[in-house]
Design a protein that fits this description.
By secondary structure, the chain is mainly alpha-helical. It has one domain (13-270): 3-Layer(aba) Sandwich (Rossmann fold). Helix content is 39%, strand content 6%. It contains 9 helices and 5 strands, in the order H-E-H-E-H-E-H-H-E-H-E-H-H-H. The protein has helices spanning 13-19, 31-43, 74-91, 112-125, 129-145, 176-183, 214-223, 227-230, 255-270; strands at 23-26, 48-53, 103-105, 149-150, 205-206. It has a 3-stranded parallel sheet with strand order 1-2-3, with helices on one face. Strands 4-5 form a two-stranded parallel ribbon. Strand 2, helix 3 and strand 3 (103-105) form a beta-alpha-beta unit. The chain starts with 12 loop residues before the first helix and ends with a helix.
C-alpha cells in the first residue's frame, strides 16, 4: 500500500456524523473534555455517551523526575467522572435522559496499518511522545468501532487567543502535535489528509472545540451556569501518594494551570481587566 498517495478521504464523513445517534466523547475528567461534554448536554441538549480509556497509557517519565512512569491516576479520574456526572445531573435534571453511563474501554485492538501511519507522523512531524500515546489509542479504538468520536482539543495551548492567534497560516506558537492537526483542520472540525495522506487515521475523530479557547469556555460556562462543574475537573497525571495533585508541574491544559487560569479570569472579569 502506498502511504504517500495524496487522496483526501473526507468522503462520507458527514454521513457518518449523521448516522451517529449520539455524541461519543472521549472523557478524562479534565477541563477540556468536561467542557465539551457539558456543552453538548447543557447548551445543545444532545445525547452523549462518554468513553474512558481504562488501561495504562502515557508510559513515560520526565528526566530526573521522582514520580512513577505511566498513567497511575485512572482510579481517581474515574472517581472524578462520577462526581462530575452526579453534579451535572443534580444541577441540570434534563441531562438525566441525555447522559449515558461512562463506557470503560479496557483494551484496544491495534491495527498494524494505523500503527505504521502513526509512526510516520511521529517521526516526520516530531510530535511529543506523551501526547501521542493517548491519542494513538483513541484513534485505534475509533477506527476499530468505525463510529465517530469527539476529542476535546481546545483552541490553543496557552489559554490565550486560540485560533485567532493564527496569522497567514503560521502555527509556530503551537506544540508540534496541535500544530499538525490545526493546520489540516477542516471547517467541520475533522482532519484533512489531502496534503498528508497518513492523517486519514483521524477519519473517525472530530475536534468540536478546536476553535474554542479557554476564555470562551469560561464565558459560556458562566452564561449557562456550569462554571462550578468545570472547577471540579482533574487533569494532573502525576498523582502523589496522598492522592493530591503533584503541585510541581505547571503543564499546559493541566489541573494546576486550569484552576489558576479560572481564578485569574474571575479577577480580571470582576475588575473589567482585559
Amino acid at each position: 500500500m502506498n502511504y504517500l498517495k495524496k487522496t483526501d478521504t473526507h468522503t462520507n464523513i458527514t454521513e457518518r456524523k449523521r448516522k451517529s445517534s449520539e455524541n461519543n466523547i472521549f472523557w478524562s475528567a479534565g477541563f477540556d473534555s468536561t467542557f465539551l461534554l457539558c456543552k453538548k448536554l447543557i447548551i445543545d441538549k444532545e445525547k452523549v455517551t462518554p468513553y474512558y480509556l481504562d488501561f495504562d497509557i502515557d508510559m513515560y517519565n520526565l528526566d530526573g523526575d521522582d514520580l512513577p512512569a505511566g498513567r497511575h491516576t485512572r482510579s481517581l479520574e474515574k472517581k472524578v467522572c462520577g462526581i462530575l456526572e452526579s453534579s451535572i445531573k443534580d444541577k441540570f435534571p434534563h441531562t438525566e435522559n441525555l447522559l449515558s453511563p461512562l463506557q470503560l474501554v479496557t483494551e484496544v485492538e491495534l491495527s498494524d496499518d494505523i500503527t505504521r501511519k502513526w509512526n510516520y507522523l511521529v517521526d516526520t512531524h516530531k510530535i511529543a511522545p506523551r501526547n501521542l500515546n493517548q491519542v494513538y489509542y483513541l484513534i485505534q479504538y475509533a477506527n476499530y468501532k468505525k463510529d465517530m468520536f469527539q476529542y476535546g482539543m481546545e483552541g490553543d495551548d496557552n489559554h490565550g487567543g486560540g485560533m485567532d492567534t493564527v496569522v497567514d497560516g503560521d502555527y509556530s506558537n503551537f506544540s508540534p502535535e496541535t500544530r499538525l492537526l490545526r493546520k489540516h483542520l477542516r471547517e467541520d472540525n475533522t482532519i484533512s489528509n489531502n496534503e498528508v495522506n497518513q492523517l486519514d487515521i483521524f477519519n473517525y475523530i472530530t475536534f468540536p472545540i478546536a476553535r474554542t479557547y479557554r476564555k470562551q469556555m469560561l464565558d459560556l460556562s458562566i452564561e449557562y451556569n456550569f462554571k462550578d462543574i468545570l472547577e471540579k475537573t482533574w487533569s494532573c497525571r502525576w498523582l502523589q501518594f496522598n492522592g493530591q495533585r503533584c503541585t510541581k508541574h505547571s503543564c499546559p491544559n493541566m489541573c494546576i494551570e486550569s484552576q489558576e487560569f479560572i481564578k485569574e479570569y474571575d479577577f480580571k472579569r470582576a475588575y473589567s481587566i482585559k
